[in-house]
Amino acid sequence: MKPLSRLFSAVVVAMLFGVHAFAQGYPARPVRMVVPFAAGGAVDTVARALGQKLMETWKQPTLVDNRPGAGGNIAADYVAKAPADGHTLLITTQGFAISPGLYKKLPFDAVRDFAPVTQLTSSFVVLVANPQLPAASAKELIALAKSRPGAINYGSTGIGAPPHLLGELLKSMTGTDMLHVPYKGDAPLGQALLAGEVQLAFMPLAGVLPHIRSGRLRALGVSSKARSATMPDVPTLTDPAGNGKSDRYPGHARALARLGLRAGRHHARTIRRQVRGRSRDVHQSDSRSGHSPAGIRRARHQRLSVSFSTRASRTPAFLIWISITGAAFE
Question: For residues 178 and 294, what is the distance between their CA atoms, to the nearest angstrom?
């Protein structure tokens, strides 16, 4: 064997041995799961449920670390700069895919620094309002907003986050003017809605379903092509203005709150094999509709996260949302 061939073979063997050793010894210490939103919301709830299942499997503590702010970019930057040993993971939403197309500069590279582990869950997005707002449907909301330009406000989970872009999309579709108020996650946003600090918001169904059922919040529409089996009396948002222009901006009708798990590129494959089995146990899905009682749906196609992390910010729906917000952020 030629010296170069022997050297190449030795390198390959060493690499394979290293991968095998990592798989056998992982995790070697507590695993940190970073959540880009404040504690207490739907994203945090799923992360803690997953962490409990992984701890049972790994026999190592799984720590949930909430790092809200900047639409998830603070958490992503923290994980990107953490040691690339597979012991720091990132929970992501669509905001992770949107940021590269929305911000001119990011302190991390969403493609180079991360690899998808799995898609965890998906949930319908619902447009909810504080009951004090005199609107019982999306159509009534639009009429009210047109009669009171700038007087109605809506909340979001942060500047550039999907609820923010959905709110701007609604304004663009209907020709209305509403004030945007950002929060650091769905938990503080939900509290603000209940307290009347903000009047409406796009929220994951799982996070607001109990308040809708108790009457503390009012559902104006869901982001699905057909009515949700969880709330069959709530109409869809395919045409919020009632003017037949649902095909022009189809974002509301297809919006889902998706949660994924990502790690450093070098160890994602090993982690993926271990995590996917346990992620199926995060919640019990209803056998008929695929939804849990909390409105969360287990991701049926867990490999979707591969394309979701690298190409979603280039798809037409995301480009429409980004263009509506005005311009890329600094």
Answer: 30
